[in-house]
Amino acid sequence: MSNRTKVVLIGAGGWGDQHARILDAHPDVEFAAVCGRTEEKTKARAEKYGARYYLDIEKMLEAEKPDLVHISLPNTAHFEPTLRVIKADYPIFAEKPLVYSMKEADILTEEAAKRNLWFGINFNHHYAIPYQTAYQAIQDGKLGQICSTTWKFTGGRPGNDDDFTGLIAMQSHGFNTLEHLCGPISSVMAEFTEIEGRQHNSMSISLRFKNGAVGTLIGSNDSSYKYPKSHYHEIIGEKGRVWIENTSKRYEFNSNHNESSEVWEAGYFNDSDRQFSTTFDKHYDEALKAFREGEEPPVHADRGLRVLKLAMACLESWKTGKRVETTPVS
Fold first, then answer.
1. What distance, in Å, lies between the first and last C-alpha atoms of the chain?
2. Are residues 63 and 52 in the same domain?
3. Which of 27, 32, 110, 303 is the most exposed place for a label (fewest CB within 10 A)?
4. In terms of domains, do 146 and 205 share one?
5. Residues 217, 173: one domain?
6. Distances (CA, A) of 128 to 123, 169, 266
7. Collapsing DSSP states into helix, strand and coil, what is residue 47?
């Protein structure tokens, strides 16, 4: 593919603006159009980036005939628009979570596979420098055998979490990143808060990994992103320990029983690597390169299917009070 890649975007919401920003700035992209549900908002988003706007997906696809379709919609509204794009035979770069039910996830991945469509999903945490550094440390054997890991990711959302968005959407990053660094999760056991007016907003999940390691995932929407250390991730191995704070803020490595740390933290002028949003830029650089070269996406939508299976196993564990085996992927 020698010319610029023609891309359209479905979604004119908050995170959709990050998609639009990246598409508009990328030298290998022709950002052609935005499709949304409300004319005023969609037109304003399109005009901001010099694109055309549409209020109907099929009309946009027919008129624009894009090379690639981005989808960034509210978490619970992914299935139907994504299926429409797949049935129109267009490659997709989607947002997490893939969907909220296994039936819908199976339909999307199977329909895309039948058509041999390129289907990427935006799990971007492990494109932060602390995560890339941690991954390399693990690959280089600096931690040795991984023994345990703790993931905490907390934010704020009022009211009951009846659709388990905290688990399915927010902690999808956790499941994906935990398996990326520590290997396949083989079983889970979960608890959720039972507090009137705050149902299911906080969770504690016990993990066992295929390699014998154990872990804990702590998630909460009873917290706030404004609190210090709203996210941290610790990985302990037989030879050392890694600590990551707020995804892109800080990385530490300690060799076994050593009080001195190797540290990465963004410098005074390094705003780019300090910001969470730029992890998306780095992921998209890789994703678009893979698309243009006819390669599989660096993070395939199958990862969305996998983390949804883990989330459903957590719900089964909570409902039954039992540990639930998960089928690790190779």
1. 32
2. yes
3. 27
4. yes
5. yes
6. 11, 19, 11
7. helix
